[in-house]
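Batch job 17 of 40 flagged for manual review because the log was empty.
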Amino acid sequence: MLLQLGYTYWLDIELSTFLLSPLFMVSVFCYLIIAALIKIQWHRVLSNALSPLENIEQWLDSDKRLPLNSRDNISHAVNQLLKQLNEVKQSHNIEQQMRKQALLDLDTGIGNRAFLTNRLEALLHEEQARGALFLIRLNDFNILQAILGENQSLVLLNQVIQLIKKRLQHFPNYFLARSNEYEIALLVPNAYVNEVEKLADKLVSTLTTIELPAEINKDEFIHIGISCFKENHKTYQILAEADMALRSAQLQGPSQWFMFDAGEIALESAKGSLRWHTFLLSAIKNKSFSLFYQAVIANANEEILHYEVLTKVKEPNGSLIDARIFLPMAQKCGLAIDLDLVIFKQVCQILFNERQNSQLSACYSINLTVETLLSAQFKEAFSTCYANHAEIKQRLIIEVSEYHLVTQLDELLPILMELSQQGVHFVVDKVGQYVVDLDYLKLCPIMAIKLDRSIVLNIDEKLENQIVIQSFNVICQQNNVAMYALGVETQAEWQMLVKLGVQAGQGHFFTSPSELVAKATQVG
């Protein structure tokens, strides 16, 4: 025990002596110098190794986007890649802004006056067109702006727009635009007079519930002017009639609506839902449909790329009703899928008959609703049809509405990919009818987009529409997608469209729709 204590005491003395010795001090000083040199050297090595990443980080954070060190091959490659990605992103953003500024009201996100005029003009050129134009006036809006300020008055205006949209949930399609600072225009295609009156009542009832400052006369805040129309009416005439109806509503005092005397339109009685259901159910059962086809013509060599199948249904008196009229009613009555399947099977049979008869094997495009594409009935019909006639898949093109593709992309993408892998081609139609992004072109197997007639009509005279089509062309080229135009009627329109990058056209300028009666006879 004493020896152990003595040994410990000796160690403490020796350690204290060593720590205070000059040799220890010199050793520590040398170690510190060596550590500092090692640190400096490692810092240099790491700096050289990480300089590309630091440059990228600087480049991303800097507004000036300083160039990376081009002497470093990796840095240079990354720099070029980031530059290209940035250019694509900027180009995409620019194209979006071009379209929005051309056709949208930037304060509300709905259409502007040019948007409204485009859609109304195109609708009036459609066969058997009908519908109604509402002008919804917010009275004393300038006083409201003075009281609430610019930002809060826009909040209230957007509240009005959302309430209008809520009342339109049961309409298959409609167009909203800000016709001027105080007016919202609502265009409702395929609307009958009785439907228009019911909608007007609901709009007045809904919009008069909005909370307003005490300085605004709530009882006279909303007035609506309405003009009903049919095909071949003039755009300026419909706008003028709606405006006169609006003035009449204002003269009568309290918030209300007034419809311009629609003459023969007002005397027409529309089929009720029950009558439409009975009529369409009978047409589906008896296959009372007439198929027409219209060629899509290439601009390079004027060859026919394919034919679009257009459908009409026969009334008991023998007259034909266009799909733009009966299809919305079929959707309301829950018969859209049954109707689409009848047409689909007819077209498949036509394709097979042509093959059997050694006729020229043309390609055909058909329009299918989203409900049909997502239905189990369609999958079953598709499988059955192609079980014995797999070769006709290559000649079938399915057209899908752009609006429904965008709003239901997650649901549609799997079925589009599945059908595409089996050889079916897809065209997105009615492009430009609404102002939406074309991001779906990066995800979906799209062969071509088809410009809506609303931006094709008189394109040679409309600079804002030319800008829109130019922006489409840039995005289509980036995604290797063709661009077609629907509703081409004049040489001037076609020349401008070709100049803007359109690769094929369809319309009366080339050919009128021809009936497929002979081919579709006894088709089941």
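Reviewer: the log was empty due to a logging misconfiguration, but the result itself is present. The CA atoms of residues 221 and 398 lie 47 Å apart. Unflagging and moving on to job 18.
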